[in-house]
Design a protein that fits this description.
The chain is mainly beta. It has one domain (2-273): Thrombin, subunit H (Beta Barrel). Helix content is 11%, strand content 38%. It is built from three helices and 20 strands. It has helices at residues 32-35, 255-264, 279-296, and strands spanning 2-3, 26-27, 38-40, 47-48, 59-62, 70-73, 78-82, 90-94, 100-104, 111-115, 118-126, 142-144, 155-160, 171-186, 189-199, 207-208, 217-222, 225-237, 244-250, 271-273. Strand 3 (38-40) and strand 4 form a beta hairpin. The protein is globular, with a radius of gyration of 19 Å.
């Protein structure tokens, strides 16, 4: 995870291999029983934590020794990752039956995403072979927004690395989308559309990214379905308020680009659409609101 401050943030680079006082996704009132993805056995023989009541079978981890990377499947063969923190080698998944499945990352299969002709930190990777239905490993759809601002205020399910050891379970926290922005000229990635989450020191379970979380996903939950929103890119502190922020690459912004990459390999980007209110529904809601207002006051 890069340390970054922009606008009211002074840009600073945090080397992913540097020594830091905090490792792993920072979670308010962290409790391993509530926030660790695995009860025990990670990384070789992980046991799923039943308190994490989401299907995370499509979030895998690598064997890279400096800092373990995480990838998130968006098709049976494609995944999202962080351009500045690329995964490689073998990737492991714990499938829906609690069985570890191993696949290989295609080192030549990465496709850059761009904004205004400049490279983004969000990158699409491929496995050397596709996951099959019998593997029981999920890939995640994208929540298809009507406009960017539809994401603001939505609750996120936030995934990140464990504490100080490579063998500590990944963590799962939460947060809410604060705003949307564009970052430029950060650690070799030229321009990335991002969404921000802030770290308010409340409520319990709220999360803030840390070194090594880059590439780990943020999800939204829509009609009980996990949908991918983006992945972690950078962290920073607002100089005026002292508030900490996490910056995630904003996947929906690159929807057409991603769909084209998947289509070239015979795959389809899964989308879950948010119904758009028509004028009649909006008018009815306004009338109901006025009625409630007069009854109350």
């Amino acid at each position: 995870m890069i340390l970054l401050r922009k606008v009211l943030f002074t840009i600073t680079i945090m080397l992913v291999y540097g020594f830091q006082s905090v490792f792993g996704l920072d979670i308010i009132n962290f409790d391993s029983a509530d926030h660790n993805r695995f009860l025990s056995g990670f990384p070789g023989t992980p046991v799923e934590n039943p308190s994490i009541n989401f299907d995370l079978s499509g979030v895998g981890w690598t064997d890279q020794t400096a800092l373990r990377r995480h990838i998130t499947m968006i098709s049976p063969q494609h995944f999202i990752a962080a351009n500045h923190f690329l995964p490689s080698g073998t990737v492991h998944f714990l499938n829906q039956d609690g069985v570890v499945k191993d696949f290989t990352i295609d080192g030549s299969g990465f496709s850059n995403l761009t904004l205004d002709g400049k490279t983004s930190d969000l990158i699409i990777g491929k496995l050397t072979s596709s996951i099959t239905v019998s593997d029981k490993i999920s890939s995640y759809p994208l929540l298809d927004l009507n406009q960017e601002s539809d994401l603001v205020g939505r609750t996120l399910i936030v995934y990140g690395r464990g504490a100080s050891s490579q063998n500590d379970s990944p963590r799962v926290g939460s947060n809410e989308v604060h705003s949307i922005d564009t970052l430029e000229d950060v650690s070799g990635t030229n321009k990335t559309r991002v969404f921000l989450t802030d770290f308010d020191a409340s409520p319990a379970g709220e999360s803030q990214g840390q070194t090594g979380d880059s590439g780990s996903p943020s999800f939204t939950l829509f009609n009980s379905q996990l949908t991918i929103a983006g992945n972690h890119f950078a962290i920073g502190t607002d100089e005026s308020s002292g508030t900490d922020f996490t910056f995630d690459s904003f996947m929906w912004f690159y929807k057409s680009n991603i769909a084209s990459i998947l289509s070239s390999d015979g795959e389809t980007l899964q989308l879950i659409a948010i119904p758009e209110l028509n004028n009649t529904v909006i008018f009815v809601l306004m009338i109901c609101s006025i009625s409630v207002f007069f009854k109350k006051y």
